[in-house]
Amino acid sequence: xxxxVSISIGSSSRDHRAFVDILGTQFLIERIGTDGDIGRxxxxxxxxxxKVNVFGLGGIDIYLFGKDGKRYMLKSALPIVRAAKKTPIVxxxxxxxxxxxxxxxxxxxxxxxxxxGKKVLxxxxxxxxxxxxxxxxxxxxxxxxDLMFGLGxxxxxxxxxxxxxxxxxxxxxxSRLPFSILYPxxxxxxxxxxxxxxYYERADIIAGDFLxxxxxxxxxxxxxxxxTNTVTRQDIAELKRRRASLLVTSTPEFAGRSFGTxxxxxxxxxxxxxxxxxLCADDFNSIAKVAGxxxxxxYLE
Length: 301
Description:
35% of the residues lie in helices and 21% in strands. It has 2 domains: 2-97 and 253-294, Rossmann fold (3-Layer(aba) Sandwich), CATH 3.40.50; 100-249, Rossmann fold. The mean pLDDT is 92. The longest helix is centred in the middle third of the chain and has 15 residues, at 160-174. The strands form 4 sheets. The protein has a 6-stranded mixed sheet with strand order 9-8-10-11-12-15. The chain has helices spanning 38-48, 78-83, 93-96, 103-109, 129-137, 146-151, 160-174, 179-182, 197-202, 210-215, 233-241, 261-272, 281-291, and strands at residues 2-8, 16-22, 25-33, 54-58, 63-65, 71-73, 89-90, 119-122, 141-144, 205-207, 225-228, 246-249, 253-254, 257-258, 296-300. It is globular, with a radius of gyration of 18 Å. By secondary structure, the chain is α/β, with parallel strands linked by helices.
């Protein structure tokens, strides 16, 4: 049996474990939240290092992607990554830039949604550059929320080209900030404070990391299409209560719960028997196809 453990600096209230069979291989998949405590995350990795097949790193990114594959390393993630001496550790960024970008084609082909001209609020495009590029390619009007949702600066960005120009200026500084400034961690993941409401209202589609979406989500999401990754049953119920019309997730469900991209990346690495450095885009796409890792309609109003 292979064991995948996702160590997240997010809330422990979202913890889950599942036994699954994937292509004839038995997996134990676990998500362990540390409620924002990076020290505890490091201790868990020290304790489990060499005893699990692959670590997933949740609630924090190792890298964000810029123009032409440029990578910005987030310094606050380094102590966590360095704690893993024997077991590979992945954060899901390669899944976001390969498999997850295909969710846009899923909306077109499986959900019969006309995307050209639709307004898409993408709460963080640097975190999901593959999805951003796919939405832009099919002719949507992007409202990119990296400055708003990451830094609290009420300035939308309307193109990936402009995003890259801004990133070249701000990322050398932003990459050195504590991650808790950039992203809700621990108990803050359970708090919703309405903000940037007019951009939610303008958008036909709200896309990206669910905790960013939830962070400033308005009470009324009537008719909105939500495209995201990891959601719990409580998250789904909340979106229904706020009258969102369609919820599509980019990652598969295991034992009643969709796990994050870091878990999917860890599973694919285990199935491939390759190191993170050896895996390429074709590996992710081909293994996902054979394993039946599909995007899913969680509910349709």
